[in-house]
Amino acid sequence: MTTTADGLGRASDWDPTAPETFDSSHEVYAELRRRCPVPWSDAFGGFWAATRYADVVRVARDSETFSTAVQNVVPHVPRAQRRPPLHFDPPEHGIYRAPMDRVLRRGVVRRLEPAFAEAARELLGPLLARGGGDYSRDFALPYAAQCFALFLGLPVGQVLEIRRIGVAYSFAIQEMDRAGVMAASEELYAIARAIVADRRADPRDPDEDLVTSLLRASGDPERPIPHDMVVATVRQTIVAGIGAPHAMLGSAAVHLSRDPGLQDRLRADPGLLPATVEELLRLYAPYRVFARTATRDVELGGRTVRAGEAIAMIFPSANRDEAVFDDADRLDLERRPNRHLAFGRGAHRCPGAAMARLEMTAALGELLAGTTRVEPDGEVEMFNWLEFGPRSAPLLLVPRR
């Protein structure tokens, strides 16, 4: 039992730190939606969780009641300064989103689609040659790094180092290891500072380059972005831009490996791949740690959330809410509309949604085109609480001759 700041003693309704398999969390969330849709947990210092679609949307959209400026992830991360745009509420948040949205529109990132497909083919080659491997470790990780390197104009080796530090950072957060968190964060800040310094010395097209776009916004006479906030924005982006695709691609490949009928259908009609990607995003949204802090006492799902308490938005649960999605656990290519929350909702909706869709479509398209069969080949090992997806996903790949 945890005693909160207002002296209330609460018993945990669930344990988010329990070991997980590829399927187990969905069973837990279904039970919570039925029995206790806004559960309290005393893990990570104590927090609420929104598991139903309507509650998640309400928290995501109502920035006045549910602020991102105080605690925006669970566990609470110690920080020396706030990092845009995640740590800012509207309207200040929009100052940082505008230069990001400028370079992350579908019409802009679409230019990267051929390069993403080429990267996928090159990385799949060794796995096809040996008949399989660990898809998460041997493909999804380097592929996510390669795509982000292409987008940001960085060496792949540097992006892989960012991901290594990012994983250490996330595990330190879960272990509530303050010294480990601060050390990893400072490493990421050092990389961000170097990237910004390079772009300041050698600017690129601000309509295509994220850092140059942010630097140009720093000179806006009406709403200038301070230089340290440019660095902080890059620091925030380089972690999320690799972690989510890495986790999501592993989940998607495991799902395909367990559904040979879907594989055959997609090989016969690749035009179905975009609808498949949307359903995979719905079924396996890669984050559940994003949180808001109540600015006042508020009722949510029949529970009273006190001012100052954190509420995590469990996107993988909301996306399987039976009240919104018929036959919610089934991948349905005819699902219309498909208003999933994999990219969030409201002001903080993921700015990289278009790029993520392109990454997934290219990767899965090459996987299906290069094989006649994909099968599970061992036990899936999941990431920790902070990223929802496989850390290890052994697959058997039968190459197309």
Automatic annotation (TrEMBL):
Residues 1-20 are annotated as: Disordered. Gene3D superfamilies: Cytochrome P450 (1.10.630.10). Coiled coil: none annotated. InterPro entries: Cyt_P450, Cyt_P450_B, Cyt_P450_CS, Cyt_P450_sf. The keyword Heme applies. Keywords: Heme, Iron, Metal-binding, Monooxygenase, Oxidoreductase. GO terms for molecular function: heme binding; iron ion binding; monooxygenase activity; oxidoreductase activity, acting on paired donors, with incorporation or reduction of molecular oxygen. Belongs to the cytochrome P450 family. This is Cytochrome P450. The lineage of its organism: Bacteria, Bacillati, Actinomycetota, Actinomycetes, Streptosporangiales.
